[in-house]
Each structure stands twice: as structure tokens, then as C-alpha cells.
Design brief:
heterotrimer, A mainly alpha, B mainly alpha, C alpha+beta, C: Cytochrome-c3 Hydrogenase, chain B, 5-stranded mixed sheet, 3-stranded antiparallel sheet
Chain lengths: 163, 362, 523
């Protein structure tokens, strides 16, 4: 379902709004499997997500704007995920965290009958964070990359690769 | 309205808020000019000085409410962070000071979703009604000896009467979002608020007896010799507990109980409507602390600094203690909550009142 | 002893049952009973009368026939007895033992949906794990479609109740970090009349995958079953294969395994502590617990390479040796951790609100625990001193010994205190192990893992209870059948019983205190 953007556009207003949206991403509490523990670790004291303003985990999808899909998606769970995604008001973003959310992970084998290989078969994904499970620093890097996607400007610049 | 919004998307929101903001800025400029001495009141001459004073006061109050909300949102996250061995927001501006501004801008720019089956008039009304008692309460709070918008001689009754509107707003929010969890959250909130309003009143009555008046300013003036907290320590503790319960903060935050009922009565609200509930809650926290300061801690009275600074210091210390409660205690179960109020707090407050009245008669 | 008395009774009442004694060191159980489907209910009743608890119910598809395997064990006489029943492959029917052992009810539902065995007299034989629309029995060796008349059992929700009550659905998306568990609660006002958990939202086909992978390739998947206490699962799988193939493990490897498992146990209990208090509404202990847990994760990451899902124990020993850094780090951690208990006791244990939320909530009586197969700290909190590290010692626990923490009443407060005590006991075990750490090789070389034919059962004491694995091998390099006995599954079977007539807030408290991890239930 396409949402048409607004007809009138204010460039400076869009820039300011995008900066505000990037600095105050509110995730939805949505942990499925092992990667959820690493997400909780990322929200804990050592790898603090609150530094970037992203630690207000809202339990209701109507108040959240970031969905971090952590863990394997089974066929039983898939309708619930799609419902949750559709309940979130736009603008909304999705981070696929962990190998299972990217492409099924270590549970793909010949004759598998119950998992969906990757969340991007169901909902559009903005950032992919690989790993099994990825370290919490990887989640922080994923959020910084998402911020770069929203605002066009990267917070902690990385040195350019020469190869 | 709906056709307009469909055509222009959420730009209507942006434009509308732009206009309101422009009007607000204009009023602030007038206020500034007036403070600087320019004869701004000639504009309002037909209406008399009291009207100007009321207008200026209201604008100041509105500005303070918004500033206070921004400050408390930032402070809550910083305080929580430091109590939990981490730092709170740090990247967004120096010391994370711009965090609340980023949050509010983001909420302003969010899509305003209305679920299909909600009860429209009530659904739209609830966030508005939740803000009314907040603004009215600020009319009578004495920030300084002469910084009070209007010194009504039944000041505290006004505040308490309007704070019951809070309950109606929550019930409307819970009922109109056609959702089992919101309904349960709304009903829990109603019974909790009703149960804790009674000991709140009963614990304020001894102070009113001591001061001999219902006007907030006179109560502060009656504390010139000693603060009332030394005369009425039990009443202070009861009042504080009831205040935490009235504002739906932990340990009494069952209506918003996250781990039990998704998000309670404001589950179906998104964007700026949700921000209204959020703002109203933080401003309520400040109001109950301000009332506690006025009634028990001497209001704006203090030695060296100007009164308004003392007032803010005392109020914000109490706000900090309320935040401290949130990050320390687990949640109380619902029947234990009601039991605590009806079977313990009300008899204690009544006993306190009777003892106070008896002592005063002697 | 109890086992001999039981066998006497069985021989006298049902002479058709064959009883064999089996070498424990190779098989993991002591006695092997074979019976026909008509005798199994009476045999189960005899087991019940003698006080056995149901450990596991499993089904194996030997293509010409299906075999049901029941494992029973006793708290005072911990010698495992397994009972086998052979059923025909075309129309497998067996009587249900859920009238005797209610905990077997869910196991039988699982066997029904994966193998197609029909259990007579079962109160609710509907699907537990699989999604709507699946039309074959997944764990059979060939693809067997579901017959038409059985398709009405696919839906697992009860229908047509009266108007007075209403249903509240908790989950599968939880704010309370349990994972994807869905509870359908039939409410009467604020009181629960019946709670019906719906599982299967994280069913990741572990058992089918094991049949498609070699033993070595399946090793990383074992620890993803219970990611919080992953070391126990890793250890259980590796030791089961070592028992089956008769591989000797050097003593240094045994000691380091014990240290790693106990560290993991402390980490798991810390995570439980944090999330339980988060359920109850206290936000801060969550962060303190995670802080301590990070220290442990750093230590374990130094030797294993992963923070969460370990693959450290390998067949014959360990993956990597342990160096001086680790030993010094463990000593420093021990010194620090002893002081941290004071913080938790100050903040939580003495808190009046916390005590009111947990005292006398969710009492599990001993009989209920026995019939449902509850193990681990939940059982010990009810007053039964049964710990597999002491009852069936394995590895270096024979030399080190373990103190067992026991509660009194079995309410949520007791479960909390037992787990705190267990953390302290684990610290003591680690102290002893670090002091006596022997030198030597850390691994015996295993050239090619070719296990003999036969089956083996191995059980360890995980942080949640008894973690068991039952492997049937047909002599090839992939397992023929691999069945996990997961403690959370058996612990959750008693939830509908103990949550009758409680408030919703209490249901959340009980669920949290049972310490469930969903992936090991759903496998």
C-alpha cells in the first residue's frame, strides 16, 4: 500500500524533522529469540542505547517508530508480525537483527517446514545487521546507519576504505 | 477537515502548528516588550489592567508548562540513567539537552492515526480534557509573593475540583479506544484515583485548619514562623503517597502497567495525542510537588534568594524524589493498592484530622 | 529399594511385561521395560503408586513400526527406568496416561501432531506447536499426510463458552520479555478461571534438523535451544555422545567444563532476576543484573569466543585451552560477586512491595510437581531436595560436590530465594574448581565419530531444571532420532493447574517465577 507524500514540501522543515526523527527513535518491545537478549544487553548499562535517544521502548505499536526484528520468524508468528508492522504509524523503519531475520539463519535445511527465510519476505527492511547473535555494538552501528539513512549525515564518521 | 488532511497529508498539522506557534511567539514578544517598559497596554486599554495582567500571566504559565515538560522529560532520562549506572542521553546536543526537543518534534511529525472503530468524539476529546486541569491549576499556584496569576480565595478547592477532570479524561480515553486493554486500564485508573483522592483531601485539611484559610497565598504566609511539615509530618507523608498515586506513577502505575496490559489506557493513541497524555503526566507531577511545597514546605519563603528560586528548588527536590520512587520500587498489585488506601490511609488521615482539630480547639 | 519393589509389583500384576537390566554407563538408564499398548496404563499407575515422576515421553519412527518410549525417575532412588511400547505404523493407537500423570498430556499432544499417534481418553488432543494448514506429520521418515477425519483436531482453541466470561489474550508479543508465549486467559472479572498456553511460535524444527545433519554439524544448534543457559545444552549433547561412543575425557577438561557451566548458571539466574523484577515493575535491578552478567560474558567470551550461544564443549574435551588470564579473571570475578549479593538483598529481598507480590503466590505442592514432571529450582523450592548434580553426578561433580538449596512452601518468594542461594552455591563450586584445576591435555582426539547402534539418555542439571537428551543411533554419522527433554516445557505444564482463581497480576508473577525460556519449549 503506497502512502503518497505531502504535496507541499519545505526543505528546511524536512531536514529539521528528519534530524529529530533520527535522534529519537522509539523501538517497539519485540524480541523473538536469542537476539532479543543481545538487544536487551544493548539497552542495558554497558552499551547504552539511551545515549542516542533510542531507549524508550514502547510496548504499544502505535507509539513506536522502529521495529527491531530479533530472532527467527516462524509461520505461526508471521501474521502477528505483519499486523504489528501495519499498526505502527508512519514514518516507520525496520532493522533486521541477526541472521535469522535476514535469511533464516542456522535453521534452514532441506525439507524445513516452519520458518520464513528472512523478514524481508514480509515487510520492507531498512538496515540489516548480520551475526548470530550480533554483538550489541553491532546494534548500535545499525542504529547509526539508520540515522545516516534518515538524515543523510553519519554521526561518528568511519575512515574511508582504500580497497 | 478530513478532505483537507487527505489532500495535504500531515502538512496541515505542520501549517496549523506553525500558525499557533507564530501567535504564541507574538504574545511572548508583547510580554517582553511590556517588561521592557514599552506602553504595550495601550493596545488593550479598553479592557482594563486586570485583563492584561491575566493575559500576561496565562501566557507565562503556558510557556512555563511547556518548558517544564521539556525539562522533566530530559531530567527523567538523565536521572534514570545515573541511577542505573549509565549515562542518559548524551549525543543529542550537549549533555543531551536537545533530546526532549527532538522527541517533541518527532511526535509532531508522526502520522495521526485514528483506528477505525473508535468512538470519534470521545477519542478526540480525551487528550484535550486531560490538559485542562493542568492549566487551571497553574492559575492559583503562588510562585512568589506577587507572581500568581490570580489569588482566588478558594484556591485549593479549585485545584482539587479540576483534578477530578483528569479521571474523566482517562476514562474517556480507555472507553473510546475500543480495546479490552485500554478499557481495563481506564477502569483501574478510575478506581485508583477515586480511592486516593479522599486521603489527599483529608491530609490537606489539617493544614487548612492551621492556616485558617483556603487561599494558597494565605497558607504560605501562615508559614512565616515554621513550615507546616513540622506540625503535620503524618499529613505530609500521606499527601505525598496520594500525590504519587494521583499522577499514576510507579509504584502505583497500574493503569499504564506495561508488562501486564500492553500500554494501558493510551494504547491506541499515537503521535501528538499521545504526547498530550505524556505532557499532562509530567506537568501533574510538578503541580502536586508545587502544592506540597506550598502547603508543607513554606512555598516561596526562604532567607537570601528571591522567593521564586526557593519555590523552584523545593518543588524540584520533590519532583526528584518522585522520580526516585519510580526507579526503585516494583509495582503494587491492584487489590493491595485499594486495600492500602481504603483500609489504612483513610483511617490514618481521619485520625490525624481529628487530633489536629482537637488540639486547635484547646 | 524402590525400583526393585516396583519391578516385583509389575511382574506380579502384569506378567506380559519384559524387564531387562541395562548397563547404565552405556545407556543412561537402568531398566528397560517392554510392554504392549494395553498394559501401559496399569504400568503407569504402578509407577505413580511408587512415587516416580514422569521425565519424558518420546516417539521413534522405525519405519515398520512406531515406538513410544517413556522415561520415569524417582527423587529418592534416582535410577531411570524406561518403558517401550511398539505400535503399528499404519494406524498407531495407544491409551493415554494423562489420567495418571497429567504432565504427559502435552507430550502426547506433541507426539500426536508430529507422528500421528492417536491417544485414547485424552482430554484435549489438539495441536500444540504446528501452524494451521500443515497437512502432513513432520517427524515421520516418509511423508505421511494427515487423514481427513483427523483434520478437525488441528485447531487448538476451545469453542463456545458462556457469555459471562471473557477471554483475554496475552502475547505473543510481550512487553515483559518472555519471548513469544501466548496465553489465553478465561477471565471472570479480574480472576482467571482457566489459562491455556499456546505454544509453537518459535518452533524451529530442531529435532528434524538433527536427522539431516551429522553429529558434528548439529553441535552449534544445540546451544540455540536455550540461549540463556546454553552451556548446559552444549554439555548435555556432548556428554551423551561421549557416553554412547565411550570416549574418555581428560580431567582438566572436566574441571573447566564445570567452571563454564556454573558461570553460565549464574548468568542465567541473573537474567531471570532482572526480567522477573521488570515484570513486577522495578526497573533498576534489571540493569544491575545485566551489569554483573556482562562480567561473566566477558570471561566466557575470552575462552569460547561467543557471548551467548556457546559451542565450547566438543567431543572428547574442549575447543580451546584455558589460560592464566581466565583463571585470574575468574578469581577477580568471584571476589566482586560476593559483595554484589548485598546489593540485591538490600534492594529487592527486603522490599515490602516485592514480598507482597510474591509471598503465597503460585504454590506448587509436591504431588503436583511430581505428576507434572517439574524439576529444577521450582521443585527445590517446594521442599524436595533433588538435584541431578548430586543424584546422578557427571563430570567433575563427583569430586567437587555441590550444595543443594531447598525451599519450604513452593511459592514465588521461595523460588526467588532458592535461585539466589543457588548463585552463591555456584560461586563456591567455582572456587573449589579453580583451586583444584589439574594440568594436562584439554582434549582427547576423536578421529571420526561413528557411534554404535543403540540409544542413550543423558540428563544434566541446567539452570531451569533437568535437561535431557535421548539419542537413537543406527550406526551412521547422522542421528536417527534426537529428542530433547526440556525443563521449561515440563514446568509450564503445571501452569494451568496452579493459576486457577488468581488475579492477572499474579499470573504474570507466577509465569515470571517459573523461569521459562520459549525456544527450548518449542524446540
Amino acid at each position: 500500500m503506497e502512502t503518497r507524500g505531502p504535496i507541499i514540501r519545505f526543505a528546511l522543515l524536512e531536514k529539521v524533522l528528519n534530524l529529530a526523527r533520527a535522534n529519537s527513535l522509539w523501538p517497539i518491545t519485540f524480541g523473538l529469540a536469542c537476539c532479543a537478549i543481545e538487544m536487551m544487553c544493548a539497552a542495558a548499562s554497558r552499551f547504552d542505547l539511551d545515549r542516542f535517544g533510542a531507549n524508550v521502548f514502547r510496548p504499544s505499536p502505535r507509539q513506536a517508530d522502529l521495529m527491531i526484528v530479533t530472532g527467527t520468524i516462524t509461520k505461526k508468528m508471521a501474521p502477528a508480525i505483519v499486523t504489528l508492522y501495519e499498526q505502527m504509524p508512519s514514518p516507520k523503519w525496520v532493522i533486521a537483527y541477526g541472521n535469522c531475520a535476514i535469511s533464516g539463519g542456522p535453521f534452514v535445511f532441506e525439507g524445513q517446514y516452519n520458518i520464513i527465510e528472512g523478514i524481508d519476505k514480509l515487510i520492507p527492511v531498512d538496515v540489516y545487521v548480520p551475526g548470530c547473535p550480533p554483538r550489541p555494538e553491532a546494534l548500535i552501528e545499525g542504529i547509526i546507519k539508520l540515522e545516516e539513512k534518515i538524515t543523510g549525515w553519519r554521526r561518528f564518521p568511519v575512515a574511508e576504505r582504500r580497497w | 477537515m478530513r478532505a483537507l488532511r487527505k489532500a495535504f497529508g500531515d502538512d496541515v498539522v505542520k501549517i496549523g502548528f506553525g500558525l499557533v506557534g507564530a501567535g504564541f511567539v507574538a504574545l511572548l514578544v508583547l510580554l517582553l516588550l511590556g517588561l521592557l517598559g514599552m506602553k504595550v497596554w495601550k493596545l488593550f486599554a479598553p479592557y482594563g489592567r486586570e485583563a492584561i495582567r491575566a493575559l500576561v500571566g496565562l501566557v507565562g504559565v503556558l510557556g512555563f508548562v511547556l518548558f517544564n515538560a521539556l525539562l522533566l522529560v530530559w531530567a527523567e532520562r538523565k536521572v534514570a540513567g545515573h541511577m542505573q549506572r549509565r549515562i542518559g542521553p548524551k549525543e543529542v546536543g550537549p549533555y543531551g539537552l536537545l533530546q526532549s526537543i527532538a522527541d517533541s518534534l518527532k511526535l509532531l511529525g508522526k502520522e495521526i492515526l485514528t483506528p477505525r472503530f473508535v468512538d470519534r468524539p470521545l477519542y478526540y476529546l480525551a487528550p484535550i480534557i486531560v490538559f485542562i486541569p493542568v492549566l487551571v491549576a497553574f492559575v492559583v499556584i503562588p510562585f512568589d509573593a506577587r507572581l500568581q496569576v490570580r489569588d482566588i480565595n478558594v484556591g485549593i478547592v479549585l485545584i482539587l475540583a479540576f483534578s477530578s477532570l483528569n479521571v474523566i479524561a482517562i476514562l474517556l480515553a480507555g472507553w473510546s479506544s475500543v480495546n479490552k486493554y485500554s478499557l481495563i486500564g481506564g477502569i483501574r485508573s478510575v478506581s485508583q484515583n477515586i480511592a486516593y483522592e479522599i486521603p489527599l483531601l483529608l491530609s490537606l485539611l489539617p493544614v487548612i485548619l492551621l492556616a485558617g484559610s483556603l487561599s494558597m497565598k494565605e497558607i504560605v504566609e501562615a508559614q512565616s514562623k515554621a513550615w507546616f511539615v513540622f506540625y503535620q509530618p503524618i499529613a505530609f507523608i500521606i499527601y505525598f503517597i496520594c500525590a504519587v498515586a494521583e499522577t499514576n506513577r510507579t509504584p502505583f502505575d497500574l493503569p499504564e502497567a506495561e508488562s501486564e496490559l500492553v500500554a494501558g489506557f493510551h494504547t491506541e493513541y499515537s503521535g501528538m495525542r499521545f504526547a498530550m497524555f505524556f505532557l499532562a503526566e509530567f506537568t501533574n507531577v510538578f503541580i502536586v510537588s508545587a502544592i506540597a511545597t506550598t502547603f508543607f514546605l513554606g512555598g516561596y519563603k526562604g532567607p537570601v534568594l528571591p522567593g521564586i528560586i526557593w519555590f523552584f528548588i523545593k518543588s524540584y527536590v520533590l519532583v526528584f524524589i518522585i522520580m526516585w520512587f519510580r526507579w526503585t520500587f516494583p509495582r503494587v498489585r491492584f487489590d493491595q493498592l485499594l486495600n492500602f488506601s481504603w483500609k489504612f490511609l483513610i483511617p490514618l488521615a481521619l485520625a490525624n484530622l481529628i487530633v489536629t482539630g482537637w488540639c486547635l480547639k484547646l | 529399594m524402590v525400583a526393585e519393589q516396583l519391578i516385583e509389583d509389575i511382574r506380579s500384576s502384569r506378567p506380559g511385561v519384559e524387564v531387562k537390566e541395562v548397563p547404565y554407563e552405556q545407556r543412561g538408564y537402568w531398566f528397560d521395560l517392554s510392554t504392549g499398548p494395553e498394559d501401559i496404563e496399569e504400568v503407569a499407575r504402578l509407577f505413580d503408586r511408587h512415587g516416580y515422576y514422569i521425565e519424558d515421553v518420546c516417539c521413534v519412527d522405525f519405519k515398520e513400526y512406531l515406538q513410544l518410549v517413556y522415561h520415569f525417575n524417582h527423587w529418592d532412588d534416582p535410577r531411570r527406568i524406561s518403558v517401550r511400547v511398539n505400535l503399528s505404523a499404519e494406524d498407531p493407537v495407544a491409551p493415554s496416561i494423562s489420567n495418571v500423570y497429567e504432565g504427559a498430556g502435552w507430550h502426547e499432544r506433541e507426539i500426536h501432531e508430529f507422528f500421528g499417534v492417536h491417544f485414547e481418553n485424552h482430554p484435549n488432543l489438539s495441536y500444540l506447536f504446528l501452524h494451521e494448514g500443515i497437512d502432513f506429520y513432520p517427524l515421520r521418515k516418509e511423508k505421511v499426510p494427515v487423514p481427513e477425519e483427523k483434520k478437525r483436531l488441528l485447531s487448538s482453541l476451545p469453542v463456545s463458552e458462556s457469555d459471562d466470561v471473557f477471554f483475554v489474550n496475552m502475547g505473543p508479543q510481550h512487553p515483559s520479555t518472555h519471548g513469544v508465549l501466548r496465553l489465553i486467559l478465561k477471565m471472570n472479572g479480574e480472576y482467571i478461571e482457566r489459562a491455556e498456553p499456546v505454544l509453537g511460535y518459535l518452533h524451529r524444527m530442531q529435532e528434524k534438523m538433527a536427522e539431516n545433519r551429522t553429529y558434528l554439524k548439529y553441535l552449534p544448534n544445540a546451544s540455540r535451544l536455550d540461549y540463556v543457559g546454553a552451556m548446559s545444552y552444549n554439555l548435555c549433547y556432548v556428554r551423551a555422545m561421549e557416553r554412547l561412543c565411550g570416549i574418555e575425557v581428560p580431567p582438566r577438561a572436566e574441571y573447566v567444563r564445570v567452571i563454564a557451566v556454573e558461570l553460565n548458571r549464574i548468568a542465567s539466574h541473573l537474567l531471570w532476576l532482572g526480567t522477573y523484577l521488570l515484570d513486577l515493575g522495578a526497573f533498576t535491578p534489571f540493569l544491575y543484573a545485566f551489569d554483573d552478567r556482562e562480567q561473566i560474558l566477558d570471561l566466557l567470551e575470552g575462552i569460547t569466543g561467543s557471548r551467548l550461544t556457546y559451542c565450547y564443549c566438543r567431543f572428547g574435551g574442549l575447543y580451546n585451552d584455558v589460560d592464566e588470564d581466565f583463571v585470574e579473571g575468574v578469581k577477580a570475578f568471584l571476589k566482586r560477586m560476593w559483595k554484589r549479593f548485598k546489593i540485591y538483598n538490600d534492594l529487592v529481598t527486603g522490599n515490602v512491595i516485592f514480598i507482597h507480590r510474591t509471598r503465597d503466590i503460585g504454590v506448587i505442592p509436591k504431588e503436583v510437581a511430581r505428576r507434572y514432571g517439574v524439576t529444577g529450582p521450582n521443585l527445590r523450592a517446594s521442599g524436595v531436595s533433588y538435584d541431578l548434580r548430586k543424584a546422578e553426578p557427571y563430570g567433575a561433580y563427583r569430586e567437587l560436590g555441590v550444595e543443594v538449596a531447598v525451599g519450604e512452601k513452593g511459592d514465588a518468594l521461595d523460588r526467588y530465594l532458592v535461585r539466589l542461594q543457588e548463585m552463591e552455591n555456584s560461586l563456591r563450586v567455582i572456587e573449589r574448581a579453580i583451586k583444584e584445576l589439574p594440568d594436562g591435555p584439554y582434549r582427547t582426539e576423536v578421529k571420526k565419530l561413528k557411534p554404535p547402534e543403540g540409544d542413550v539418555y543423558f540428563a544434566v542439571e541446567g539452570p531451569r531444571g533437568e535437561v535431557g537428551i535421548y539419542i537413537v543411533s543406527d550406526g551412521s554419522t547422522t542421528p536417527y532420532r534426537l529428542k530433547w527433554r526440556s525443563p521449561s516445557f515440563s514446568n509450564l505444564t503445571c501452569f494451568p493447574e496452579i493459576s486457577k482463581g488468581v488475579l492477572i497480576a499474579d499470573a504474570v508473577s507466577i509465569l515470571g517465577s517459573l523461569d521459562l525460556v520459549i525456544p527450548e519449549m518449542d524446540r
